[in-house]
Amino acid sequence: MKLLILAGGYGTRLYPLVKDIPKALLEIGGTPLIGHTLDKFRALSNIDEVLVVTNAKFCGLLSSWAAKEKAIPVRVINDGTKTPEERLGAMGDIAFVLKEIGMNSDLVVVGSDNLFDADLAPFFAAATARKTSPTVGLYDISDVGMATKYGVVGLNAQDKIISLEEKPEHPLSTLISMCLYYFPSSTLPQIAAFLQATGKTDTTGGYIQWLYKQIDVYGFKFGGRWYDIGSLESYAEAQNNFKK
C-alpha cells in the first residue's frame, strides 16, 4: 500500500505566509504540517512507500525535508507546474502520480493541510475489510455555518455514502468529507474514467461525488480534533489549539 500526500497547491489564500514556502512546511508546534501527517501513518506497517506530489516551485524544499526522513521512504514527485494558474488540481495530481507509479498497489490519499489527532488504525481496519470499495474519512464539524465550506456527506445504516453536496447553501448535516481516502487498486482506473467523463481536475470531493454513483463508496467517521489549514484564520486556530 502506498501513501500519497497532496502538496501540489500554491496556498494563495495563505499569502504572504506561504509565498516562498509550501503550505505543507508551515509549522504547528514546531513540526511542519506534512510531518504531522506522516506521523499519523508512521506506525502502520502496511505502508511501504510515501509519495509527495508537489510543484516545481516547491519541489526543492520538500525534497530537502524528505531527505531527512529515515524511518520510511519518501519520494517527492514534481508535477511540473510553476504558477497557480498552471496547477493541475488535486485529481490532476493524483492522475499524474498514477502514470508515474502504476496502479498495482492500494492507495491512500491525504491532503498535506489535513491536521487531525485521531488514531488511524480503526479507519484502516474498516477500509481494508471491504477490499474492493473506497473509503472516505469523515468528520462532524458540528457547525452548520462551517459545513457550507465543505462537502457534506450522507450515509445509510451501513455507512455507505448516499449523498454528497459540495459547499451547500443549506447543509443537511454537519458531517463533512476530510481530504483522506483509501482507494483499493481495483478502483484506481475509475480516476481516468472520471477525468475523461467530466474534465474536472480540481477537487477530490468532486470525484467522490461522481464515484459513489458508479460504485459503492463508504464513509468512516473520525473523532478528535481536525483542522483544514486553508486560511490564515484556520492556521492561527490550529497554532493555538492543536497541541492543547
Considering the chains and any ligands shown, give keywords for the structure.
26% strand, alpha/beta, single chain, 244 residues, globular, two-stranded antiparallel sheet, Spore Coat Polysaccharide Biosynthesis Protein SpsA, Chain A
Explain what you see:
The protein has helices at 33-42, 59-67, 90-101, 121-130, 144-147, 189-198, 204-211, 232-241, and strands spanning 2-7, 27-28, 31-32, 49-54, 74-78, 107-111, 114-116, 135-140, 151-155, 161-166, 175-183, 218-222, 226-228. With 244 residues, it is of the alpha/beta class. It is globular. The protein has a single domain, classed as Spore Coat Polysaccharide Biosynthesis Protein SpsA, Chain A (Alpha-Beta Complex). The chain is 30% helix and 26% strand. It starts with a strand and ends with a helix. Helix 2 (59-67) links the parallel strand 4 (49-54) and strand 5.
Task: Provide a short characterization of the protein structure.
With 244 residues, the chain is an alpha/beta fold.
CATH level 3 topology: Spore Coat Polysaccharide Biosynthesis Protein SpsA, Chain A
Give the amount of beta strand, in percent.
25-35%
**Number of separate structural domains:** 1
- What's the pLDDT, averaged over the residues? 91
How far apart lie the N and C ends? 32 Å
SSE ordering: EEEHEHEHEEHEHEEEHHEEH
